[in-house]
Amino acid sequence: MKVADLGCSVGPNTLGVLSNIIDIVDAACVRLNREPPTFQFYLNDLFGNDFNTIFKSLPDFYTKLVQDKGHKFGSCFINATPGSFYGRLFPTNSIDLFHSASSVHWLSQDPFLGLSEEELNKGNCHLVSRSPPSVYTTYLKQFQRDVELFLKSRGEELAAGGAMVLVLLAKTETPRRSIWEAISLTLTDMLLEGLIEEEKLDSFNIPTYEPTIEELRHVIGEEGSFFIQELETVIVPWDEGTNEDDDENVRAQFIATYTRAVVEPLLSANFGAKVMNEFFIRFQKKIVQLMVVEKLEYANLAISLIKIT
Q: 121, 208 in Cβ contact below 8 A?
């Protein structure tokens, strides 16, 4: 069974995804009285991802796999496949299952790249509640182009009857503040105090887009390689993983820490490394302020797709 995890990153969750897939397949084999398959996993992320750290954790992963499943369990092989998933990564008809979590809402590039100064998203680094329709359209068009290419590539790479499971940030009918807006508010505060330059803020855009269910259904239908088997919306608090009795500062620090791990390279490249500590101190305080007045939640779309043959 050949499985590819797209946008695997590096961290404790990287190999945890593989464990979950193995557990699900193992349970199905027991239920159906079948021999477990041999697994071939491909871990994919951009070329700069720290695959060596993942490789160093493999001996412990294999040891735990034997302890949990026993020697009768099928063999498991793990490889890395670096590169952008907005394009081909694997031979035709070679993969049985694609998995991708918290990755497909990341765009292939800044959606405003190459546009005129008048078309830029000035004063903000992402979509915010007051963004004009033209900004929404620019983000949406980039998302549609990227996801069409993503689906076309995966459709060519999947074997007949192959499946794909995606989890990505999304928008629902209930308006929710995005974490990108909290970043934008923090940057605006720093601009007003002269800590960052206006030109740098005007030209900086976080390359993510959270689609509505209808927008995602539309692009899947238009591309034509897959049919939707199942689709579910999951609401998750920003501070999921903290204790209920933790105060706002502890929970805000938790949010700031994982946000920093994701976006600091982007922010540092544009605004400079010197202001990063100050930014995340202010970002944490901004989160505390927002917690007092509203519930901070993500909307995730979990979608299961089957290749049309």
A: no
